[in-house]
Amino acid sequence: MHFPIARLVEHTVSNKPLDFFLFELYCSCLEEGLARVRTKEQGGGYIGRYHNFPELKRDSNGMPTFSNLFDGPVDYKNAIDRDLSGLYPHDEAQHFLQSVSVRKLLEYFRSNSRLASFYPDPPVEKFTAEALIALSVKELIDRYIHVSKTTLFDRDQFLPIYLPKETYFLQEELPIELLVPILFAKLDSERIELDNGMSIIEIPEDIQLARAPIDTFNHGHHSLVQARATHALQIVNLTIPNRDWITSLHFDVLTDTPVLKETGLFFAAFRVITGIPTGFAQVLTIPVGWAAHYKANLRPIDKVAVKQYAPSLERGAWNDPIPTVSLKLLCDISALHKNVLHMSNELQFSLALQRLNSCFLRDDSADRILDAVIGLEALLSDGNEALTYKLAMRQGALMKLSDPDRVRMTRAEISQIYKYRSAIAHGDSTRMRKNETVQRPSGPVNTVDAAVGHLRTAIFTIAQHPRFLEPLRIDEELLLGCSIAENS
Fold it and tell me: Is the pLDDT of residue 162 over 90?
């Protein structure tokens, strides 16, 4: 089931209840629930704690690291669900559903068409409408105590906790932001603006804590890798449908093609400029002005674990020095990202970006060299005749625009890259060993890394000069001596 993400046209956050009667009913529930908590605390009754509650720390390299507290904050939901301490007389020790205030709230949910349709009874007993509505009350009580630091009810303190839940109940479209943490890179700025409603931002501490994985290993995703991000790609002004609690619960950001495409374009631009072996291991959905659930004082977010990074990062990369991306490079990323967005509908350019991203998601040299060469061919080829020669000449020509001293060396390296790719394709281990490095003045460089570097250069140069998407223009202007100014 797929519920699409849409662009938000306009959103305003109210500081007053939309349904005053619903607010009053929840106020009554809170007063009664808080009284139960006070009674249990004063009587010395046991109230359980959260297990696997996240704790945020920082490594010596400044990267976040997460651990789980077995004995976390008090979970006040336990104090009002059932009387497990024997404190109440037997005939009063009833489930919280039987309280007068909660029964009135349940009746109102049934009588209101929007609220009644929001919690349809699914064919699972634990997820009945009554159970879910009662859970909302218990979560609000727990949240109230953790935020206000008191068990005495105050309407003014309760209102900002209540309003996000009311929005969740009543609005048919819910505004969200997406954050995609950028792995294994320190960024030298708190915020960089990008095009198309996107930014690079430093991840706030409350979101850092809330994004912590519950388990050390979650469906094959590595929590030590997931943690290593200080900044994230931010995508704003999005909405998800909210016909009922199931709709908003089951939207899948990973099936949303436009979001995935925009994320891929950003990481391509980031990799072109920096060459850092980065990626992402989570996609975070940040509710804007609403909350489906509360957990103690954690910020309400939804997190999806993904594996969009090279497997090598799981082999101790968290212990390695973390590269820093300077403000200048961040500005270069922003500028390139703008060009990439404008050119992303060009088939050959889009293919080159996809292949570049693939180079950074693989460890196997054979896969990476094939990706890099396919990306170069997408940009520089106009047919199969004299392919190696044409690519060597055209990549060398593009190098004139960025590093003229490397033109001759570039042509030689492209020829050697093709020899290495051919040796891999034919299983010729002798030729593979002979061509596994290219020689540069600074020392030998792995041929695969050289190929990926040339693809990055080609993408960067063509993004600055889009007319060179036509390879014949490279021949005319850069190889045959026609000046760039004449053809601008």
Answer: yes
